[in-house]
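Appendix B. Raw example, untouched.
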Amino acid sequence: MHRSLLRLRMFIMKKTIFLLLFFIIYTLIIKFCPIITEWDKAFIIYLQNLLKDLPLIIPQLPDCKLYSIMIAFPLIVGGIYFFKQKTYLNIAFLASIPLITFLLNCIIKPIVHRMRPPYELQLLVHPHSFSYVSSHSLVTFCLWSIIIYLIYKHCQNKVFKTLIIALSVIWILFVGFSRIWLGVHHLTDVLAAYLLGFILVSFYVKLFSVKRHQ
């Protein structure tokens, strides 16, 4: 059992290091290859032209009260579940996700120093911070991916499980999509947020598995 646990921990470490290296390489490419920003700009223009007849209230949803509700909901649901399971460290981890993602953005954004898409492409919303990575996409991915994990592992009702997982995935994708549609983030900002979120969530899931096997 002890050897199996050590092997599992080594696997977690290797996978996490590999993903972090991939994220660093990805970030360096974004920072030092201006052509990618030009591709991102062209994609925003294409997307906005494609969706120009749709009301802008649609991409604005993650910038209104609904976004706050969709942040609070997984925190409350996950907190109640972990409280019933008496796994209080998991409650602390879940509650720390907004803080962790905020701190990561405070570190990464000034280092990469990537400007937002041009002002003329920004529809209604005009943020003043740097662009890389998308904080909306990052925190949404982390919180709702954990909900997906909990539902997948512990829900016995297949219909309810499928519905919640599908809605969670749609919300994660919609938040990232809306940031590009509004012209406040590049496509590669959103993809970076999803990659970083996957690293954080996969580390949590593997850590949870190690704890369960101890």
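End of appendix B.
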